[in-house]
Amino acid sequence: MKKTLIALALAAAGLSAAHAQTVIKIGHAGPLTGPIAHIGKDGENGVRLAIEDANAKGITIGGQKVKFELVSEDDQADPRTATTVAQRLTDSGVKGVVGHVTSGASIPASRIYEQAGVPVITPSSTNPKLTQQGYKVTFRVIANDLQQGAAMAKYANKLGAKKVAIIDDRTAYGQGLADAFAESLKKEGVQVVGREFTNDKATDFTAILTKIKAKQPDAVFFGGMDAQAAPMLRQMKQLGLGAKFLGGDGACTGEMIKLAGDAMSGDAYCTQAGIPMDKMPGGAQFNKRFKEVYKGDVQLYAPYSYDAAMALIEAMKAAGSAEPAKYLPALQKLDVSGVTGKIAFDKNGDIRDGGVTLYRFQGGKWEALN
């Protein structure tokens, strides 16, 4: 009897070992509270979907069955909080991170990940400086501000804008995009008649816009997020400033349309790094699944967050290890097909062949122009 019990115990232990799973933590960092929490949560849901899909496949890495687990942190889109969050994630034992959402958070946090040797892939931070620091663990799955600025400058010229005023929110994202746009305008021969600044908490832009109105610009460009872009557009209309409104991807959201309300018109344009959802190789399927699971529309970066998480997992599979030092070389050489397109990085960690799309507000939504 005793021998039988021992045999059963050993068999149970063997069965348990066979079904044991190694837990691999993947981090996410972005604003989950505050005025752009809708964008941070959008990205978080994209990562969560990628992890659920990976777990459903029963992936093995190095011969061991693994289970991926999401560890998400709120950086409040704040540079100081972002470094604290990055330290917390690396201390918790995450093997890779998707984030941060804003350039102002990504740039200071990148130093923490570099010191810890933990790969981090941003789905949305577009400031060129992020990947110009020489860090080995920093990657981006979306086009940068230089590409967006050039695209919008060309289109502003095409629209017949001879004089353009520029406003930015002084964040790494907003200022970086505005700088890239201003530089590209010079190449297009378009005059910058004013350069004004605000911040990413402001809601009253009357003084700035009154000053700009006196210069009679054909267009006003804002480098910043929808939480500021929407009231700015409303106040432009209230002041009778009839210039076209131009923005980057931070203003290219469904939330912008909701917040701006009746102020939205066919004179509002924006650029978005990447390509429209319906033009993405896996866009239609992803969009359908996202709506089914989260009962809402994709805000902006969820497909890129999904691809960033997928890239980390694919690199781990290729290397046969979830240890950052071992799978980093595989990540650097990665060449796979994602929801948004081909995922492959250049020597700086930037996505190769990143696209930019121009949009115009018409028919109650942002419509892709090209």
UniProtKB/TrEMBL annotation:
GO BP terms, alphabetized: amino acid transport
Lineage of origin: Bacteria, Pseudomonadati, Pseudomonadota, Betaproteobacteria, Rhodocyclales
Organism: Aromatoleum tolulyticum
Keywords assigned by UniProt, alphabetized: Amino-acid transport, Signal, Transport
Highest taxon in the source lineage: Bacteria
Protein's recorded name: Amino acid/amide ABC transporter substrate-binding protein, HAAT family
Nucleotidyltransferase is among the record's keywords: no
Family per record: Belongs to the leucine-binding protein family.
Gene3D superfamilies: 3.40.50.2300
Record's keyword annotation contains Signal: yes
